[in-house]
């Protein structure tokens, strides 16, 4: 029937006269269909690549199978025969049209590939199978994360250069260039950023500190930028208080005080007030006279 659905025959009957006379009859033979053809998928395997930010409800791929039979035997319906529980929650197969749509958002970092075994069956008992592989591609949807493993909140101003102030770990859940992180520390601070190994960094003093000349505390801003386009940046802040040491002597306001007083000045009179200041803080900055 699939080669020819009907046949037209012409039957002729001729007598023995001279001239002969002929009669004709037409016979139309219609071939009735039986379910002798299984559905056939257009591809043995369907592979589709989609970015992880594809909108929910999008049609990812449409599978097609054809059946050479007619009527009920030629009507193809689709069903998922095998898939993980997660894939069953994420993808929806239209049993009549063969369209596979997205039910939930994809996350490359959670799973980057899904496999569905799909069957096409006709109105009888015949079927065909195919495999659908959905590959999820990464987009730069994660900001680099900076986590402090340890950090000094206070440091003495006489700490030697190279003293470790903080240890930190940096990571980006994206892959490829989107997950390649570069770290930096704001300039104009007496600290520098050094890479320890892999994704670990440390903040150390770049030189000797001077609480009196620079600042009593430093606000350090760490930045981690990935290689995406556009790049995404994560930040972290460390506030480091510089503790005072007694590295400054008191200094008089004058090297010598000269005062002239009459000889009959009353006992107990204030003749002069001398002043000295000390740049240090707290106990180290309290000046007494003797």
Automatic annotation (TrEMBL):
SMART domains for the chain: CA (SM00112)
KW Ubl conjugation (keyword) present: no
Domain of life per record: Eukaryota
One Pfam family named in its UniProt record: Cadherin
Entry-linked CDD domains: Cadherin_repeat
Transmembrane segments: none
InterPro entries in UniProt: Cadherin-like_dom (IPR002126), Cadherin-like_sf (IPR015919), Cadherin_CS (IPR020894), Protocadherin/Cadherin-CA (IPR050174)
Annotated Cadherin domain residues: 1-41, 42-146, 154-252, 253-290
Molecular function in Gene Ontology: calcium ion binding
GO cellular component: plasma membrane
One record GO biological process: homophilic cell adhesion via plasma membrane adhesion molecules
Cellular location(s): Membrane
Membrane protein topology class: Single-pass membrane protein
Keywords from the UniProt entry: Calcium, Cell adhesion, Glycoprotein, Membrane, Repeat, Transmembrane, Transmembrane helix
Stated name of the protein: PCDG2 protein
Species for this entry: Agelaius phoeniceus
Gene (UniProt): Pcdhga2
